Amino acid sequence: MADVLEHQKRGSAAPPRDPRETLEPLLDELMRSLRFERAVVLLYDDERVALAGNFGVGVSDAIARELVIPLAFADDPIVAALRGGVPQLIRDAASEERISAPIRETLAKARLGPVVAAPLRSTTEMPAGQDGKRSTAPGWEHRGEWAGVVLLSRTSGVTQSDVEALVPFARQAEEAITLQRDVDLLRDTSEAFAIEKEWLWWMVNGVGDAVLVTDSNNDIVLQNRRAELLFRASDEDSAGKRRAVWMNNFLFTAALSTWNLERVVATTGRE
User: Radius of gyration over alpha carbons of the chain, in Å?
Assistant: First the structure.
């Protein structure tokens, strides 16, 4: 039992997943196809309410992490990419007046001059309102991991055609992130189920009485050794014992069904 609790403690203290594992392969392919030279990934930080640099490609991670752009800077085109879910063209980040001076200095240190700021989550179409029109909500407002912006730079400059080419990127990034999230969720759920099942096994086998655990269909999903002697028969058992086990199961199922029915009737009566 102590081993189970210790394993559960270790599992809950697992370090957070590195977003580079999911996003870097997608970025590498994108940069090769569009001939970008440098990139910095900024992720939405809920505690700081800001876009915070996470890692760079062609830019050191240390410099990338110096970038912190508060969402309060509503005029900043990088923040606009996150809020609107649409890539933003920045012809020269070093002289862009909508970007604050300290952030411009960090962008210059990262050698990010001509930049396209592309969202990592696309805008989400909302249901039609009373006026029949549909609105879009920024993807970062919806529950999900790693909502943010990637800054892509090329020394020779960036153009509107780069912006248009990056429009599908948000959807591709969202699909990659969602797939990774689902894989992680399945893994975590499977691990948690295994731990809980083992913990429950220790619980039911820690008493001397027969213990049965059933599901909503009255099917037995777990039983201790004492219960196995009463409710499980093998081909090696005598016909008399197999008959007795069958009768135990029949009477138990009938009693459980009756109890469930009485509970439903009592609940309905109180309502």
Answer: 29
This prediction's pTM: 0.56
Angle between helices 160-204 and 20-34 (to 10 degrees): 160
Under CATH, which number does the domain 14-127+136-187 receive?
3.30.450.40
**240: buried, middle or exposed (CB in 10 Å: 19+, 13-18, 0-12)?**
exposed
> Could you tell me the residue ranges of all domains in the chain?
14-127+136-187, 205-270
Residue 86 to residue 89: CA distance in whole angstroms: 10
Residue type, 30: L
- Ranking 71-75, 115-119, 171-175, 188-192 by mean pLDDT, the lowest is 171-175
Tokens standing for residue 216: 């909503």
Per DSSP, the residues of 204-232 read HTTSSS--EEE-TTS-EEEE-HHHHHHH-
Task: Tell me which DSSP letter residue 141 carries.
Answer: G
Q: Chain centroid to CA 14: how far?
A: 15
Is 227 within 8 Å of 245 (Cβ atoms)?
A: no
Amino acid at 251: L
Q: Distance from CA of residue 88 to its chain's centroid?
A: 27
* Gap between the Cα atoms of 52 and 242, Å rounded: 67
* Residue 110 tokens, joined: 């990262």
Residue 9 pLDDT greater than 50, yes or no: no
